[in-house]
């Protein structure tokens, strides 16, 4: 018997497998240098990337990468440090200092391989002179609460750091830096992944100040003073010290969505991809996806059913209350309200790193009966959405999706099945 949950979970697995570091890193190995090979990295997939690099690199090397607590991997030549995400902590600060120390004093004969994935911004706290870890934590919390898009958040972060915005690559100069990046940014801009520790981008501090004003981001007077000073200026992409470096996006949402679509077709369900770069308030994006699914279910347009509708990107959540949730579960709760009563629709929304928010779920499942089942459990779905309490709502009906850490991160993944598998 066809089970929509199992089908959707298998599609998620195909998307994640397409971003597996073991499959990608071998295709981007740099030539062996005359001097030392130093591996550094940060992100929720950095430990698995380091493990994959060790297996592929048949030459001497040493390394140090930082990842989220619980996301470590077995490595023999690379030290793994675990730190806090999404809010930085002292372990991340220590890791940043040690990484900067490791890349200092290198020569033009040396090679630095930077393994970067999503989550690296929080895992690499390194406050600018005059600022403290507490200042960086406060800014990070304000950014997460603001609902600002990831581009805006990372533009602010890089102007308050001694490691982001290309500064780590400059610290390694004159060594060649080869960045291997698993991209979790809509549009696949490598300079925005983990706030670009090894990849500069053109956004300047005027842009950072504009984002703070536009999104009402609450920062201290000390932080504002820094942003209004030349000390905050980030390196320019035109700086000649970046000239010999290489940047490779080895996995992205676009590739993973294509793999998911191929798996659906293999299982007999036609698939369409809306976009790999959808941004916006999670509950608003959920409503739009619900409207599309309803149109397909009721009118066979813009796609005939049965069909699997796929999308990716990174939504945001403006916190209105202190419930338990995450952007994928919040999006899906909004979606569930929008498809209430339509039995032909089932969906999964999940973060490809395996964690949505601060709990242990990647996201959740929903179908046309979700809102009614929540009601029978004593919960009002609209009230739970208003309270940013989607995790609690889906937990009450047993629909959380908990695959565990995946070792990669190509951002949010949404799969909506309208109709079942063809006979």
Automatic annotation (TrEMBL):
It comes from the Bacteria. Residues 308-412 form the MOFRL domain. One of its GO terms (cellular component) is cytoplasm. Residues 8-228 form the MOFRL-associated domain. Gene3D superfamilies: Glycerate kinase, MOFRL-like N-terminal domain (3.40.50.10180), MOFRL domain (3.40.1480.10). GO terms for molecular function: glycerate kinase activity. Pfam families: DUF4147, MOFRL. Keywords: Kinase, Transferase. The keyword Membrane does not apply. The keyword Transferase applies. This is Glycerate kinase.
């Amino acid at each position: 018997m066809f089970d929509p949950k199992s089908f959707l979970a298998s599609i998620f697995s195909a998307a994640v497998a397409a971003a597996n570091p073991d499959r990608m890193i071998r295709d981007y190995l740099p030539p062996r240098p005359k001097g030392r090979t130093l591996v550094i990295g940060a992100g929720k997939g950095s430990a698995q990337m380091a493990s994959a690099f060790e297996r592929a690199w048949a030459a001497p090397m040493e390394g140090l990468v930082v990842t989220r607590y619980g996301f470590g991997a077995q490595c023999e030549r690379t030290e793994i440090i675990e730190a806090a995400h999404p809010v930085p902590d002292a372990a991340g600060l220590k890791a940043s200092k040690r990484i900067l120390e490791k890349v200092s004093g290198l020569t033009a004969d040396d090679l630095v391989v930077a393994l970067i994935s999503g989550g690296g911004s929080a895992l690499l706290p390194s406050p600018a002179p005059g600022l403290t870890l507490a200042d960086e934590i406060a800014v990070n919390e304000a950014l997460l609460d603001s609902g600002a898009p990831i581009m805006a958040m990372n533009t602010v972060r890089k102007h308050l750091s001694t490691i982001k915005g290309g500064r780590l690559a400059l610290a390694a100069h004159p060594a060649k830096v080869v960045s291997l990046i698993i991209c979790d940014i809509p549009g696949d801009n490598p300079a925005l992944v983990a706030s670009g520790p090894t990849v500069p981008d053109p956004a300047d501090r005027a842009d950072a100040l504009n984002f703070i004003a536009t999104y009402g981001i609450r920062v201290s007077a000390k932080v504002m003073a820094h942003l209004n000073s030349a000390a905050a200026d980030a390196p320019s992409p035109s700086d000649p010290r970046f000239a010999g470096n290489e940047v490779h996006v080895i996995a992205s949402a676009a590739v993973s969505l294509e793999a998911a679509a191929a798996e659906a077709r293999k299982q007999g369900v036609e698939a369409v991809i809306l976009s790999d770069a959808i941004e916006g308030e999670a509950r608003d994006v959920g409503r739009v996806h619900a409207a599309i699914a309803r149109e397909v279910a009721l009118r066979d347009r813009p796609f005939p059913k049965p069909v699997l509708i796929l999308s990716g990107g990174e939504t945001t959540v403006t916190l209105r209350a202190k419930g338990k949730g995450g952007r994928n579960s919040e999006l899906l709760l909004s979606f569930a309200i929008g498809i209430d009563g339509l039995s032909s629709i089932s969906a999964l929304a999940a973060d490809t790193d395996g964690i949505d928010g601060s709990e242990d779920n990647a996201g959740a499942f929903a179908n046309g009966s979700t809102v009614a089942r929540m009601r029978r459990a004593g919960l009002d779905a609209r009230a739970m959405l208003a309270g940013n309490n989607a995790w609690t709502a889906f937990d009450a009906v047993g629909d959380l999706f908990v695959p565990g850490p995946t070792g990669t991160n190509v951002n949010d993944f949404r799969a909506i099945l309208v109709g079942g598998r063809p006979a």
